[in-house]
Design a protein that fits this description.
The complex is a heterotrimer.
Chain A lengths: L2 E6 L11 E7 L2 E8 L7 H5 L7 H6 L6 H16 L5 H30 L2 H22 L8 E2 L2 E2 L7 H24 L2 H7 L7 H6 L5 H4 L7 H4 L20 H28 L17 E9 L2 E9 L5 E7 L1 H7 L1 H5 L6 H7 L5 H5 L1
Antiparallel strand pairs in A: 1-2, 2-3, 4-5, 6-7, 7-8
Chain B lengths: L10 H11 L4 E7 L2 E6 L4 H10 L5 E9 L3 E9 L6 E9 L4 E3 L8 H12 L2 E3 L29
Parallel strand pairs in B: 2-5, 6-7
Antiparallel strand pairs in B: 1-2, 3-4, 4-5
Chain C lengths: L6 H4 L15 H24 L4 H6 L2 H39 L13 H11 L10 H21 L14 H9 L1 H12 L3 H32 L4 H6 L11 H14 L11 H4 L9 H26 L14 H22 L5 H29 L3
Helix pairs in contact in C: 2-4, 4-13, 4-14, 5-13, 6-8, 6-13, 8-9, 9-11, 9-15, 11-13, 11-15, 13-14
The chains are: A alpha+beta, B alpha/beta, C mainly alpha.
Amino acid sequence: MAEMWLTMGPQHPFSHGLWTLKVLADGEIVKDAVPVIGYLHRGWEKECENRPYPLIIPMADRLCYSASMTWSHVYCKVVEEALEIELTDRTKYLRVVADEICRIQSHLMWLAAMGTDLGNLTVFLWALREREFFLDLNVKLCGQRLTTNYPRIGGVRNDMPYYFERDCLRVVKRFEKAIWNIIAMMDESAIVVSRLKGVGVISRKDAANYGLTGPTMRGCGVDFDVRRDDPYCNYDQLDWEVAVCKEGDAYGRYRVRIEEMLQSCEIIKQAMEKLDKLPKTDPTRVKVPKNVPAGTHFARLEDPRGESLMYLISDGSDRPYRLKVRSPIFVNVSASKHLVDGVRIADIPAIMGTIDMCLGETDR
Amino acid sequence: MTDSFIEAPTPEEVVTLAQAKFPGRITVRKTAVRRVSLTCDRDIIHPLCKYIHDVLNFEQASSVCGVDWVDHMQVVYHLSNYFNGVMIEINVDVPNDDPHIDSVALIWEGADWHERETYELFGIIFDGHPKLERLLTPQNYEFFPFRKSYKLRGQE
Amino acid sequence: MPYDSILNWIVFKDPMVNPFYNVYNLPYDIGFKLWEILGGAIAWLINLIFPGNGASKFLVSQEVTGILALVLMVVVIFAVAFVINLTMIWEERKVLGRMMDRRATRVGPLGYLQNLADGLKTFLKENITPSKADKKGYMWALSIVIGTSVLIACMIPLSDRWFIADYGAGLLIIFGLFAIAPFMILVAGWAQNNKYALLGGMRAAAQMISYEVPMLIVFASVTLMAKSFNINDIVAAQVGMWFIVPQILGFIVFMVAAVAEAERIPFDLPEAEAELVEGWQTEYSGMKWGLIMLGDYFRGYVACALGVIMFLGGWMIPFTSWNAIPEIVFLLKVFLIFFVFAWIRAAHARVRTDQILWLGWKVLLPLSVINLLIVLALKIGGMV
């Protein structure tokens, strides 16, 4: 068959959002690929220049619906750095718990999408079933399933309810058992393993140079995690490990994400212990001034999808002068040409599935 | 290059080495734990980034973004090291009437789309960029929406 | 009585006796009795209004009864095949629902009417034909895919008394018609003027050559063992021992190939929805798509039924000569195999094009040849 350009997207089942991958296919083999984004560009950064600081938190939630907690967290973090506020320990651990719940449910969402990408609907439904428990935790903590609107500048919206610790530990305990069912569905199926192994290989050097971050990068052998190497929110006082896989193929990235979920369970349990020891009367929120002193600041943290960074320029008023968002997927998807080069069309969903697309934060 | 490769430079090493390499061209604004903020001239940005990438081992360009200071433009680079989590912030001023700067997309491929985005939103032209086209906005836009001169409805 | 013309079918003295094989045909009997009731009632009514006319006599004459009984027999056979098909779809949805831990079908008693509701839904959709599609190829390829699928589903006998025709080349014709659909999928993929459909059609062709060869070798070893292509003879040859016992390899190869032939997960490459949208069915919308899905399940039914006929003793109950309702026994076996199909679908992901080629040529083909050698050895040794 002659070569032809195949437009995969924006309404293609594999794209998980509005973006297009133009593929030059020679029969089944991919010769070239051009990612096209921008269908969801809302001018988010410009919009923020027009709003007071607290009103940007709900907007930050909408950057990515399945990682809303970390996005509003990174926004609050950069404003807190500009205001030079030190948070209380209780706030920090509450944010850790909220972030890790967000990470697990985001990774479960990815696992579900991975199931449909590979044609296994059971994985999809089982992963979404497990995810519901974590969304229920979100409801108990902040009253909302997806766009949580929980962190505040200088703290969090509310302390956790009295039953949250019990429920949270129950869910985590249940999840640590239930995840193995899904792992068995994936890992013990020779078809899934053969679909993932050896496709979309990226070397360590290239992964760093292409700017891949997060589980995608750690699956390529880069041993870096913002939570450990640039710690924030007392992550350095918890005992956990960074999941790294040397292979650099889709299977490696899959394993990194699975391991990350288990590590997140570990972090939640330890953070809950620490919260237990702290006095219940600690404030979870400090009073902050309305205006932010002039200066430039940036904050980064480990999003479920990679390293998210916000760069804030404040001019002394109650609105940011410029707020730049560095989205992990924006950079990861720019490397998709290298990821899918030379593979078969059937491999594209399997490879791009390991990127864990989210278009809200990509186009902003 | 004769400089010896350093896997995980501390912020102090970054400052001393960079200033020794480009004497008088780099201003250090502040250093903190794992943070270095520099300001440099427009013409040395490409050699400086090459030096930071090759010798100081900053493997990733986290972000490249533009800022419109009304009287001039600014390009801000955030570079990160994977071995100790140090981050360098480089500010480069670009005059309004000549918004050109050397591209670093060939040093860090991850900076490619960031530069395209900065070009389309601020109109800063990155010389030597492999494909400087509009990315997020439609190709037929003739204005640069993130400049301060482009007003939102509530700002007028 | 030897067969000499088509009239033999419709003109025979005692309709309870099939003139060629001298066996009792249940659907024909049902058709005959139905016409006795229906035609008798119509003739009685006409005779009531116009006493002593010829029309009522004509309606119940031997020849007309023979022809209309045949028509009714076809209707009965199709209706039964259709109901079996709906039951299988229902079974799959229920099994998948239980395995995936979700609600399955909801409409009607036990959710049985869900399929009819879905069918009604697809009927009410707009019938869209792409303006740049090759109209003839577009419609004909679809018609042939669905038509052959329904045809072979109707040709599957449910027992030694439930069949359309008991002819010598039975299984051969079924296999022949079974293999037509992938060609037509290629045509359909080309005719739709859609790149995804084209890729899906090419995949169907590539997939077909990899599983059709081992499947036919297994078929050859089965017929070699039974010394006949006739379905009744093949089932009768399994009285003492089901063919699955000496030919377990053949059974496995056949079942894998049958999953591929029915285009089910893990071998549903031509319609891989994750990468090819809906593969070769991309431009078939509304009722056309509904019929394609129906045809897919007809083919799934045929694949299961062939497995039962060739390896699991057809309609015989194991370890006993008692055989009360052979149709039910046969269908139970078919549903059991289909349960395994649904199970596989719930447990597995989709394979890649190169992987199914590898599987077909490097695993299934040698296994089927080994199976054939085993049968030959048994034949030469005089065991069977």
